[in-house]
Amino acid sequence: MLIPSNLLKNKKIVLGVTGSIAIYKSLELVRLFVKAGADVRVVMSESAKKFITPLTFEAVSSNRVLDDTNESWADNHNHIKTTQWADLFVIAPATANTIAKLANAIADNMLLQCALAYPNLKIIAPSANTNMLENPITKANLKMLNIANYEIIDTQVKELACKTVGDGAMAEPLNIFWHCARALLKEEFWENRRVIVTGGGTLEKIDDVRYISNYSSGKMASSIATALYCMGADVNLIATKFEPELPKELYTIAVESSAEMLEYLSDSIRVAKKGKLSKASLMRDEQIHLIQKKPYLFMAAAVSDFVPEFAQDGKIKKEILGKEWSLKLKQNIDILGSIDKTDIITVGFKAEMDEQNALSNASAMIKNKGVDAVCLNVLKNSQSFGSDTNKIDFIVADKTESLESADKLSVAFEIIEHAKSL
Q: Looking at 162, 180, 230, 375, which residue is catalytic?
């Protein structure tokens, strides 16, 4: 998924790095922040400088590194002014030693002084040996930080620097990036609102090795789900295909056939209307005060219009079929037209190749399908599927607005901004 160069435009991030071998991943994290338009300043502990020099971080961030040796009160290069400047404070990697000091408000180095001085949300990505991470005191320290305006990004299980396999490796830079993007971009309208997104072309079984499908890549649906995640929504993405670099915390359900999609979609709508947050969302914030917000559905899936009337078990042998094969199809269920859309705001998607009638066909969906809006995508040919860019017309009952052609994640943000007015 292409990350727009203006995703974090005008956002200011302080990144603290400590003495862990995982610090090499922090260089990639800075690169991701900067590439997305953020301004990044790095604060290093003295132990961190044993792994990577400040010059390296200065090269990738284009900003002077703050450490114990160069604090200045003649300008803004100090722990007070730097933290006043920041929109977000991140520590990645955070060693067990740093975690212990943070939990006890110890500030005996520049990084810890910055953390103590920063009053808003702080995000930490731990990195430690499994035994150090599982030590009861470390676990107690993490619990203390959880209730002290810190968010903890889970570690992962893999081969550690000590050559053992276990939990304790720092989260991947892209996962940290998405978590931070959500912290910076979330807004009250979408925060903790249940949203369902469907995507990809359904696969309708002919036999156990053959199926009917279409060219839909699922990229637009993945982009919409990612944009909604960044805005703070509680997203459930139901799809046949997913982009490989989705936020790890994004809740997904993989399906194949239209029948399977309908089953999970119907269940998800029922849950959304009851006002229940997903398990993943509850884990992100155990102190959520649940306020019922009207849920949304973005139906971006390309559901097959026809399905085989008699799907076969096993593999149909060509010797049995002969030289010609007439495959009997029947009209598929209209998922968007048949689901219960009361008390849920619904946005349908329409792909058309007939430029002359595309707008009228898409507009008719509002009445025929009972949806609140339609996103029209006029395709040139089959090569249009799977591209990284898109151009959408956002259609409601009384007007049509053309969104500028852009990468799909940028288009997704535009779509959900227009959807707020429904």
A: 162
